[in-house]
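[recover] target loaded
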């Protein structure tokens, strides 16, 4: 029994030596555990609340920043859509202005052409009238010259001069016969 007691004592000593070999002191371990728990309680009571409050505020600030960024992005998209709408309207208005300008230019050209045609026709009519007047004057002059020539020819043939009134009657009659 003695040997059993010695074996149990040896076994207990080995266990104690095992913690001793590992450098673990039970008293120190218990003291450190108590110090750790006190430190944990002090930190939990005084240090963690301000830290968690600061972290919560930081989280709220970050979330507010993210929300502001989303809002800004939404506003930017709306602004972009508005800009594109305004550009489309401006393009439409420019198109309308160009079409109106083309129509006005076309009508102005047509009016100018019509005016030029009217003026050309007027000039042509005036020229035609002038030609008709010149022809009439030439015929008159030719008739007068013909009458004078016929009178001269008649005078030479007859050798007797007829009175000018009779002469004009004969010449007129002769000319009328020739014209028919």
């Amino acid at each position: 029994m003695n040997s059993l007691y010695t074996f149990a004592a040896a076994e207990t000593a080995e266990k104690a030596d095992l913690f001793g070999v590992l450098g673990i002191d039970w008293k120190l371990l218990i003291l450190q555990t108590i110090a750790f728990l006190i430190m944990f309680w002090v930190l939990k009571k005084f240090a963690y609340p301000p830290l968690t409050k600061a972290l919560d505020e930081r989280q709220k600030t970050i979330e507010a920043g993210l929300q502001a960024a989303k809002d800004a992005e939404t506003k930017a998209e709306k602004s972009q859509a508005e800009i594109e709408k305004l550009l489309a309207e401006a393009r439409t208005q420019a198109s309308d202005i160009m079409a109106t300008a083309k129509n006005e230019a076309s009508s102005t050209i047509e009016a100018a052409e019509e005016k030029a045609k009217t003026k050309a026709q007027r000039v042509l009519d005036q020229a035609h009238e002038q030609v008709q007047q010149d022809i009439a004057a030439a015929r008159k002059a030719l008739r007068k010259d013909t009458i004078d020539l016929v009178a001269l020819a008649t005078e030479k043939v007859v050798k007797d001069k007829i009175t000018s009134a009779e002469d004009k009657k004969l010449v007129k009659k002769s000319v009328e016969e020739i014209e028919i």
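[recover] notes: The mean pLDDT is 83.
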